[in-house]
Design a protein that fits this description.
The chain is of the alpha+beta class. The protein has helices at residues 18-30, 53-63, 95-104, 165-178, 180-183, 191-200, 246-258, 282-291, 300-303, 312-327, 388-405, 415-418; strands spanning 4-9, 15-17, 35-38, 44-49, 68-69, 78-79, 113-116, 130-134, 140-146, 153-155, 158-161, 206-208, 225-229, 232-237, 244-245, 263-266, 272-277, 305-307, 337-340, 351-357, 360-366, 376-384, 423-429, 435-436, 471-477. The chain is 27% helix and 25% strand. The strands form five sheets. Strands 6, 7, 8, 9, 10, 11 and 12 form a seven-stranded mixed sheet that branches. Strands 5-1-4-3-15 form a five-stranded antiparallel sheet. Strand 18, helix 10 and strand 19 form a beta-alpha-beta unit.
């Protein structure tokens, strides 16, 4: 049996015309693929046999479709374009602004770029290396740089003009790659030096920052099913197994072209969205969903999850936890969950489940439970797979108790730990907030339980690669 080859196609901004998308589906199907899936960065994946690669390459070349095979050298440019008109408030950032920016990219970025409307919470803010976030000033953006393979986040000292986004992204990438010992996979970074090097040989249109970025409270909208969009409708389609049948998608494209719906949108939640459906055409869409037996009413506590791309174990664990949440009739409104196995994956969530060794996990949450913020608090360590749902349910209780009493605790305390609160000293990474607890050691680094922190030599953080010097002593609950 030949080994499957993974094909990736970037859809800049998570949008594609119905005609272009149909052509991609035909090429995938001709190469033997029956299904496709979407990624967290709004890209498209499918698998084919190795024997089909030559024909696929020929078809892709003829269609002018950029793609990668078993590689992710060029991460997709993600955006909140999908939210325009349905998940955001009225502001200057419109469809035409997004399109103009996409059209100005004359190179394939090798670092992650996000274009995000600050008036929405559907698309992530800080999962890119270059995070452009709309400001209150028309056509100007905040820029937050997350240096590659670090959690160091730097606010660019001025606002960036829309038309300069591709050029400044290219200049920053060139400087970072030309000075990797300064900016790439480093424990400490002189962020101001990056600004000086980029602006020394380039002139960009700027505005001064007169007010800080305001990150909105997280409220994930229900992004599935038929919904009103003014006097029209939009349709969201989510698949529990992340797989979309190509035949079904081809018919969606045909119906779009038949009813003059121009574009399809891929969400950061791995779903498909169709906007601007005329009321008179809604029955046609209902017939199509009936034909393929597509359910469009999943529970909200199943839709607010992020799992790593192409990770069967992550998906299985998500489905297990969703079932247990359903049995508990758990409220998860204003929360999001993420399952992370790879230290370098860019997924995000207000509550994150991180695998530390096979079937053993750590639960962390953002300090304010907003999934668009990046500072994490460790809630529980050394959690077995069987015990995950119980601890997560307790953590949800902590969140809602905090909301009801309007308190902002420094760190969450689970019910069983609340009385008494025994504290102990541990060491925490200042970059990614991973904790080293000598009681448990560090299985990923081969460090046995009971090993004191000061005895460690050549130690590196198992999450971000920081050295021992980047750990500080903190108190946590025992």
């Amino acid at each position: 049996m030949s080994k499957k080859q993974l094909i990736k196609i970037n859809l800049p901004g998570g949008v594609a015309s119905a005609g272009d998308f149909y052509e991609m589906l035909i090429i995938a199907q001709n190469a033997g693929a029956g299904q496709i899936r979407f990624g967290n960065r709004q890209q498209l994946y499918f698998e084919i046999d190795a024997e089909q690669l030559e024909d696929l390459e020929f078809d892709m070349l003829g269609a002018g479709i950029d793609h990668e095979i078993n590689s992710d050298q060029y991460p997709n440019i993600t955006s909140s374009y999908i939210a325009d008109g349905i998940f955001n408030h009225e502001n200057w950032l419109k469809e035409g602004v997004y399109k103009d920016i996409f059209d100005l990219f004359n190179y394939q970025p090798e670092l992650k770029i996000n274009l995000v409307d600050s008036n929405q919470a559907f698309a992530p803010f800080f999962t890119g290396n270059f995070n452009f976030i709309s400001s209150p000033v028309s056509n100007y953006w905040y820029l937050y740089v997350r240096f590659p393979k670090t959690n160091i986040l730097y606010c660019w000292p001025v606002l960036v003009y829309s038309d300069d986004i591709p050029a400044i992204s290219k200049a920053m990438q060139q400087v970072i790659f030309a000075h990797m010992p300064l900016f790439y996979d480093q424990i400490e970074v002189n962020a101001d030096l990056l600004y000086q090097l980029v602006t020394a040989s380039n002139q960009f249109v700027i505005q001064q920052i007169d007010q800080p970025l305001n990150i909105p409270d997280f409220q994930l909208p229900y992004y599935e099913g038929f919904n009103k969009q003014g006097n029209k409708y939009w349709l969201g389609v989510y698949r529990r197994n992340e797989l979309f049948d190509i035949e079904f998608l081809k018919e969606i494209c045909n119906l779009c072209m038949q009813t003059r719906v121009g574009q399809l949108y891929i969400s950061p939640w791995k779903s498909l969205l169709v906007k601007n459906i005329e009321a008179k055409h809604r029955p046609l869409w209902g017939t199509l969903l009936n034909k393929y037996r597509v359910n469009i009413r999943h529970a909200s506590n199943e839709l607010n999850w992020q799992v790593e791309d192409l990770c069967g174990k992550c998906l299985d664990l998500k489905q297990q936890l969703v079932r247990e949440f359903e049995e508990a009739d758990l409220r998860t409104y204003r929360l999001s969950f993420a399952i992370k196995r790879s230290p370098q994956s860019g997924i995000y969530g207000s509550i994150m489940i991180r695998e530390r060794k096979p079937d053993e996990f750590e639960i962390v949450h953002t300090r304010d439970f907003n999934h668009n913020t990046r500072e994490f608090v460790v809630y529980k360590q050394e959690v077995s797979k069987a015990d995950l749902s119980g601890h997560l349910i307790n953590l949800c209780d902590v969140f809602y108790e905090q909301q009801s009493t309007n308190r902002q605790p420094v760190a969450a305390v689970s019910k069983e730990d609340a009385e008494p609160a025994n504290q102990k000293k541990v060491h925490q990474c200042v970059n990614c907030f991973t904790i080293y607890d000598e009681t448990y050691g560090d299985a990923l680094n081969g460090i046995l339980p009971g090993t004191p922190f000061f005895n460690l030599n050549d130690f590196e953080c198992s999450t971000c690669g920081a050295t021992k010097e980047d750990y500080k002593e903190v108190l946590c609950l025992d």
